[in-house]
Design brief:
The complex is a heterodimer of chains A (115) and B (113). Chain A is mainly β and 115 residues long. Chain A is built from no helices and 11 strands. Chain A is globular, with a radius of gyration of 13 Å. In chain B, strands 2, 5, 6, 10, 11 and 12 form a 6-stranded mixed beta sheet that branches. A 4-stranded antiparallel beta sheet of chain B has the order 3-9-8-7, with no helix packed on it. Classes of the chains: A mainly beta (115), B mainly beta (113).
């Protein structure tokens, strides 16, 4: 398995533009998590899905952020409009829910820079 | 509620010396405990985990961790540090019956030659 695949690896965009980050989880994993990492705030859980259904989006910072999981093999995190304070590394992770002791497998991340 | 504390922002150790990165946790049930490592410009990589059984857990790259229920700790250890071990280390806990992993704030390990 190629692991959790995120695209793009780097994204530079201008303030006000729409940004879409993509994630392909490990085949067979039924939980998917979006995290944001910054120097100031560390690793923050934004939202997670079980069986393609959003379970907890309490970490989504504002209405400008939205996430979807249309099927078991694909998820997107969208920011519209983007702002400089959204600059961060965004990680996707997947897991096998309800398996005893299951951990997460993380993707390599998308480094977002909003100028 | 689940929580994890990593009391040290940074740990400095000389190459060849033993290292310890501290982690304490709080859960209402039985914990599943994890250590992840993050190298620069990379995602988090799994190192080891404790589910049940032997309190000493061995993981990747010669790391091990000791589960101590009475002290609610899960410290990461390595007998002899390498410069290449320099990275950011995260402890995480998952309560039985819950799916979310709760991560600590991370500890930066710097191993000097």
């Amino acid at each position: 398995d190629a692991g959790v695949i995120q695209s793009p690896r780097h994204e530079v965009t201008e303030m006000g533009q729409e940004v879409t980050l993509r994630c392909k989880p490990i085949s067979g994993h039924n939980s998917l998590f979006w995290y944001r990492q910054t120097m100031m705030r560390g690793l923050e859980l934004l939202i997670y899905f079980n069986n393609n259904v959003p379970i907890d989006d309490s970490g989504m910072p504002e209405d400008r952020f939205s996430a979807k999981m249309p099927n078991a093999s694909f998820s997107t995190l969208k920011i519209q409009p983007s702002e400089p304070r959204d600059s961060a590394v965004y990680f996707c992770a997947s897991s096998l829910a309800h398996r005893e002791g299951a951990g997460y497998t993380f993707g390599s991340g998308t480094r977002l820079t909003v100028v | 509620a689940q929580s994890v504390a990593q009391p040290e922002d940074q740990v400095n150790v000389a190459e060849g010396n033993p290292l310890t990165v501290k982690c304490t946790y709080s859960v209402s049930g039985n914990p599943y405990l994890f250590w992840y490592v993050q190298y620069p410009n990379r995602g988090l990589q799994f190192l080891l985990k404790y589910i049940t059984g032997d309190n000493l857990v061995k993981g990747s790259y010669g790391f091990e961790a000791e589960f101590n229920k009475s002290q609610t700790s899960f410290h990461l250890k390595k007998p002899s540090a390498l410069v290449s071990d320099s990275a950011l280390y995260f402890c995480a806990v998952r309560d039985t019956g819950f799916q979310k992993l709760v991560f600590g704030t991370g500890t930066r390990l710097l191993v000097s030659p």
